[in-house]
Design brief:
With 358 residues, the chain is α+β, with helices and mostly antiparallel strands. Helix content is 22%, strand content 37%. The chain has three domains: 4-54 and 67-111, no CATH class; 123-329, no CATH class; 330-358. The radius of gyration is 28 Å and the shape is elongated.
Length: 358
């Protein structure tokens, strides 16, 4: 059974927590403030071998083979309560005494992240961003706004693989220049065709790929970018009071997505350099990736979900920048009314044009 790390305040004995709003470690009881170095020595437990505890007596029924493969059981040092979690959860709160605990057994050895970006936005900021997201949505059902409530909101450190790579890229484009003019008798159009070539040596740093199968890749990519300048070397103290997922998608399994993102970015860079033409289409490309390096980091994300009319709606907010994305229901009645209104307007315009021509 893995051990837990708790940070006791030396002044009052309360449990120290990381406060995202102030970017400091605080005791919520006496409000004493600590810096990261003061808590760093607690991470020595990460290098200790995992405890192997065996019980002689068994109560209840035996687990069937494979039934406990994705489960972990931890013991809260504050109240003695047992915490049963998915194997990918790295940090949480005790459901019995609400003490923040860190499950360091999930981050030992090669599972320890290189970096972490601490939360800058707190839970209240996530709520405010969510309700602001509902404003101005004309096709959003009014009753959704009136009845809507947040079922759950939680701060999660999401695992990301960060890819560094140098790129050699060659691309060619089919481009055209079009010129039109008229005289008293005719209208003329002249189209010139060009083959445009581009070559570039590019460097990409810290291209993120979500390392958790529990998180939708499109959702995680939609709340980018994260500012890596605010990343710090990993310390488990930053996880106190938040959930943390351990990666279950390996760096090797993430290479395909990293290559796709790097290749697309290289193509976009070279496409943007082809200017002054009426049209541009890619004809060929050859993007070669070399000298790749991978790092492991935890990025802060607020996850919100709500239920309406039996449907679940999920939202994610960048815990560093406050950028929020998510799906919303559509008022089909309002959509149809709007479509009919535009159809009527378009019909009136066509009728007006016809009258003018006649």
């Amino acid at each position: 059974m893995a051990g837990l790390i708790e940070y006791d305040c030396p002044c009052c004995g309360g449990k120290v927590q990381y406060d995202a709003a102030s970017q400091q470690f605080k005791c919520p009881y006496c409000e004493t403030v600590f810096d990261a170095d003061a808590l760093k020595e607690r991470d020595d437990v990460l290098n200790q071998p995992e405890e192997n505890m065996e019980w002689g007596n068994k109560a209840g029924q035996d687990w069937t083979p494979g039934e406990t493969d994705n489960m972990r059981v931890y013991l809260c040092n504050a109240c003695g309560g047992e915490i049963i979690v998915d194997q990918n959860v790295g940090a949480t709160k005790c459901p019995y005494c609400d003490s923040p605990v860190v499950m360091v057994g999930q981050f030992k050895g090669d599972l320890k992240p290189d970096y972490v970006i601490p939360f800058k936005k707190d839970k209240e900021a996530a709520k405010a961003a969510y309700f602001n997201h509902l404003k101005g949505k004309k096709l959003l059902p009014k009753i959704f706004k009136d009845q809507n409530h947040i079922d759950e909101i939680k701060g999660v450190y999401v695992p990301f693989w960060l890819f560094d790579a140098d790129v050699d890229a060659d691309m060619s484009f089919n481009a055209t220049k079009t010129k039109s003019w008229s005289d008293s008798s005719y209208n003329y159009t002249k189209t010139e065709h060009y083959l445009v070539r581009r070559r570039a040596d590019l460097s990409f740093r810290r291209v993120p790929v979500d390392g958790s199968s529990q998180m939708e890749d499109t959702l995680m990519e939609s709340i980018e970018p994260f500012d890596f300048n605010e990343a710090v070397s990993f310390q488990s103290a930053y996880l106190s009071g938040f959930l943390a997922d351990k990666y279950d998608v390996t760096s090797e399994q993430s290479i395909t997505r990293a290559n796709q993102r790097i290749k697309q970015s290289a193509e976009d860079v070279m496409r943007e350099s082809v200017t002054g033409y009426s049209s541009v289409t890619a004809a060929s490309n050859n993007v070669r990736i070399k000298e790749g390096i991978t790092k492991y980091a935890l990025y802060p994300v607020w996850l919100l979900n709500t239920t309406w009319n039996g449907e679940h709606y999920y939202f994610a907010m960048n815990g560093q920048t406050g950028k929020l994305v998510g799906d919303l229901p559509c008022d089909k009645g309002a959509y149809k009314r709007g479509l009919l209104a535009w159809t009527a307007i378009l019909g009136a315009i066509i009728t007006c044009i016809s009258l003018i021509i006649i």
